[in-house]
């Protein structure tokens, strides 16, 4: 189960809305071993695409060095879908490289609402998990 503070959910949704019609992406880091998302880190979608996201390799290297220095890990890896439901595509599943992370998807296809869902993705196998929004 993903337990996440409301303000972090709001940050993810706001980032997804800002980048629409392109997919938004980012990370929420947390203390190693805690499974608690704490530090919101919006990233640039290097693909600048409405159907695909890709972290810039230089930005990603910088992020992992920073997290390592802070004894943090990527607790949440998020991205948006702009025209489809918040469910991982086959491509999303194939590029998921953090088996301990919660993969959050937000759908911004409806301008008046959003869909917020979380998954575990291990070896391209997708398992949806419940989300508890705190506060």
UniProtKB/TrEMBL annotation:
Q: Which UniProt keywords apply?
A: Hydrolase, Metal-binding, Metalloprotease, Protease, Proteasome, Zinc
Q: Record keywords: Transit peptide included?
A: no
Q: Name one GO molecular function term.
A: metalloexopeptidase activity
Decide whether keyword Flavoprotein is in the record: no
Q: Write down the InterPro entries for this protein, in alphabetical order.
A: JAB_dom_prok, JAMM/MPN+_dom, MPN, VirAsm_ModProt
Q: What Gene Ontology cellular component terms go with this record?
A: proteasome complex
Q: Tell me a GO biological process for this protein.
A: proteolysis
Chain ranges of the MPN domain: 2-125
Name recorded for this polypeptide: Proteasome lid subunit RPN8/RPN11, contains Jab1/MPN metalloenzyme (JAMM) motif
**Source species:** Amycolatopsis saalfeldensis
